Amino acid sequence: xxxxxxxxxxAAGAAAxxxxxxxxxxxxxxxxxxxxxTATGPNAAIGxxxxxxxxxxxxxxxxxxxxxxxxxxGDTYYAYSWNFIRLYGRSLMMFKxxxxxxxxxxxxxxxxxxxxxxxxxxxxxYKIRKGVKFExxxxxxxxxxxxxxxxxxxxxxxxxxxxxxxxxxxxQGYTSPYKDSDxxxxxxxxIETPDDNTIVFKLSKPFADFDYxxxxxxxxPVPKAKDTGTKYKEKVISTGPxxxxxxxxxxxxxxxxxxxxxxxTDPNRxxxxxxxxxxxxxxxxxxxxxxxxGDLDVDVVGSGVQPAAQAKILADQALKANSDNPLAARLxxxxxxxxxxxxxxxxxxxxxxxxxxxxxxxxxxxxxTGGEIATSLLPPVxxxxxxxxxxxxxxxxxxxxxxxxxxxACGQPNGFETNIAYRAxxxxxxxxxxxxxxxLGRVGIKLNIKSYPTADYAKLYAGKPxxxxxxxxxxxxxxxxxxxxxxFGFLKEITDSRTIKPAGNTNFSIxxxxxxxxxxxxxxxxxxxxxxxxxxxVDRAAMExxxxxxGVIAKGLYYRPKNLTNVFITDGxxxxxxxxxxxxx
Amino acid sequence: xxxxIIRRLIGAVILLFVVSMVTFxxxxxxxxxxxxxxxxxxxxxxxxTADEAAIHSMAxxxxxxxxxxxxxxxxxAGIFAGADYDxxxxxxxxxxxxxxxxxxxxxxxxxxxxxxxxxxxxxxxGAAVIWLAFGVGTGVVSALRRGTFFDRASMxxxxxxxxxxxxxxxxxxxxxxxxxxxxxxxxxxxxDFAEDPxxxxxxxxxxxxxxxxxxxxxxxxxxxxxxxxxxxxDFIRTARAKGLNERTVVVKHxxxxxxxxxxxxxxxxxxxxxxxxxxxxxxxxxxxxxxxAVDAIVSNDLPKVLGVTLVGAxxxxxxxxxxxxxxxxxxxxxxxx
Lengths: 585, 337
Prior knowledge:
CATH topology of the largest domain in chain A: D-Maltodextrin-Binding Protein, domain 2
Shape of chain A: globular
InterPro entries (chain A): Peptide/Ni-bd, SBP_5, SBP_5_CS, SBP_5_dom
Number of domains of chain A: 2
Oligomer: heterodimer
Domain Solute-binding protein family (chain A): 105-497
Main location (chain A): membrane
Number of helices of chain B: 14
Strand order of the largest sheet of chain A: 14-18-13-17-15-16
Helix content of chain B: over 70%
Mean pLDDT of chain B: 85
Strand content of chain A: 15-25%
Family (chain A): Belongs to the bacterial solute-binding protein 5 family.
Low-confidence stretches of chain A: 1-33
Mean pLDDT of chain A: 90
Protein name (chain A): Oligopeptide ABC transporter, periplasmic oligopeptide-binding protein OppA
């Protein structure tokens, strides 16, 4: 009897998962993978605005299971932070607050228009929008933007933020405005401000996608007079529709309306709530319970509910109707380490590609609700991505015959033994390692499973080539999310062999001059459509090397409390768009 | 008595000194013995995009390249005289008592500890009052009514209390009383007592009861067992033979003997809780020392972990000292020399 009930419940759960994922975007389409289908019910906030409203007022209650890396625009690198920061800061460009792929398009924010590139793509000019003010009423000038970018270059002071400006600006040895001979901290020659409304970026190498750099939070203006270095995160000076009313580090903060934000200068933000509260370091399961009970409006981290709440939501039609299950620009994959013999032979790497049972990979991430099976690196939500499947198999369960042929070609007809590493605290990655151990075992590839602490995984273990080689880490389970949804934002950091450092890598394995050449071509392609195609070529080239085994394109299950208005998933961040949200009460 | 207190205080200081040395060695010596380089250790304090030069620069600024005794000496000196930390943009002064500086949050550790201490003390003391009252009370009544329905039921509940983990009872209580019935504040609603005493109590009532439920169980069982033993002692029979009423026999003679072991275990429990009720604070999202420690461990923020460890050790040592002194009050036979 009990068994029968269990079977029934499992079947019901599976049906719920299938129903939900059927409503979800994707489904193998590589055009707009986050296109929803229903006006209400599951996935109603995917591809369109759910509960549209212009009603102002109320308090938007948000919570975070952890804490920000930093609220300082020059020192933050979390996707949710880049989404949220638009409430209190205005960068030169921003992702358009719009559902689906429209939300992955850049639109001018503090700038009047997109960047004006020089013919050689090494100089980019922006005009600053007139009338934008800081929260104290001071007018924002191009010098404030220059100062903000300059200080973000100082990685001793601001270690968390991205290093794109460090890498691409023609710095000529410049390191920090805090060590600047110019008393105004504006000695950086790579950025010019010919007048208060013009800013010119000079690059050391051509780059066609610079508008994405201009959309990073580090271009949010910082007034030098109010800059307190490492303490600035405690009192960030707002240029957006909200300013900080309180900020208790590690506990909570509150945003209220910024009286000096002029909607006439801002065509992008609705700024519906009067107030936004944020509780920090809140128990993750408690956050889910509060969302479901209506005590909370948004889980700001934006990666979906925890497994306990997921089971509860999928089993309850009423709750499921308030959920969204979008695809993200995040890939769960496994690096194949060419430094470890016999994986230096491409045929042995191909044997792994063929032997792997991707359905096991998908199960490890929670089945269809957790993600879609990936056959290449570039997620479908990224414009221009194409379906690439160089190592096909029936139902993605692996092709044992082809794997054996590849092993024979590699000179290892009976298979070989190697280690597989995963992040110790990540049970899903452990399940991946076990699944691969099983499926590769079918062709005689024996995997010994090793775990390493998550916090040091990239810096001391799998991401440290010497360690990975000396410890025979042939396979390394990993995951990657785009800094922004385009080919450069997703692929460069995990495929360019020239980015590989002695430690702390994000590219653990892909080392091939053909891939590097394809990247160089894509980075200098001026035409956007051709550029998107060029990044898809990088994806194909990377898959041809067989250095990476794609597993799953991530999906999260999001709960949408009834109190929320104007809700939609933006492909810019694969989260609810925080600039658009409002509340009913 | 006075000499005894002085001796115990000196002993406590020596113990704290040893704890600090051992803790420091665990965090800063053991990794080196295990093969970690100074750059490996410093890599936790730089961003994910840092290059080798930046990591080495951080290792130097953190003093990891200096001999360990110098690093420890600086740490101890900082507690008494304060310390300066080069954060890159500026040199930050960490005033005494400086329990280290977090290069992840870019803040001195001590103000954080002080800030979090209020929450933990509120939680621990409130819960302690409840579990003492209910635990000891239930234990006494159970012992006096041995074998009755009350005895069996209360000991059954006590067993459940000991067995159920706090992250279960905690989440269950939130689901029922906070999200279901709306009687209590949701998790993460802590307000300082000085700000609003009612909200303070409202946010703590569930954590108090949950924590007390766990601990009261142990006290009830201990009290019952000790009480049963005591009530069969000769002096109890003598007291009854003298014609004393039962209330006096139980409270003045029976309960007094029970208090000594209760006090011993209470001192330890309270000391440990004051060092951070990790599970309770995490379940209810209370920003106390325990949650602070968990967050610090997750982010590998060693100065914070070191700070919490020392504060926790201090609480345990002080609590035990107080308990030892209270023995004389509870049991007149105890004399200190």
